[in-house]
Design brief:
single chain, 235 residues, eight-stranded mixed β-sheet, two-stranded antiparallel ribbon, 29% helix
Length: 235
Amino acid sequence: MVQQSGFQFKQFYIEHGNVAMKVGTDGILLGSWVGSEKSKRILDIGTGSGLLAIMLAQQATNDCEIIGIDIDAAAVAQAIENAKQCPWPHKLGFQQAPLQQFIADEFDLIVSNPPYFASGQHFDSARQYARHDGQLTINDLFEHSARLLSANGQFACILPTDIATKAVDIAATFGLYCQQRLTVMTTLAKPAKRTLLLFSSTECSIIEQQLVIHQRSGEYSEDYIALCRDYYLHF
């Protein structure tokens, strides 16, 4: 039976009917941008439907272990089902757990498309958990990612551009230093809304780049197509 409520990628399908946060550009950007080919252990914080974890499984070596955690039981169940249907189920595992209480061996790569709406904004109960930073503050995100990261590991996330600089400063207090920053604009006529950040424990000059998703014509830009070509069905 062909499923209709999810999102079809080139090599896998993501059902997201039972999760608060659906497949969206933020997750696809991050999963396409982060390289997982050299990582043996990967953690996806706030995995939701399992999108990021499964995207990274497509790139990762056959012996890579990828764990996705989420505080929402329905999301974890959805991620498990999506993993069963993808070509790399042996690489993937999912757990219901808050990051603050999660205990595991160190990871080579940690990724997160975290909640970023400020306290005081309200959604339905499931979306409240998925989007509200009261359950996972930026401080918590960096503190516990640093705790779980190997000495030579990397942490990558996507955040609203207006809090990205603050996030870089917060990360540094936990020994995570920004290596790369990709600022994303929907079009050249609009201000940047999202920034992708890559951190490690090594201080260095930040590599700054920009990405425009749509051309003036409304079509996807060549840079966006090149970035996401391995995933989008029609790229």
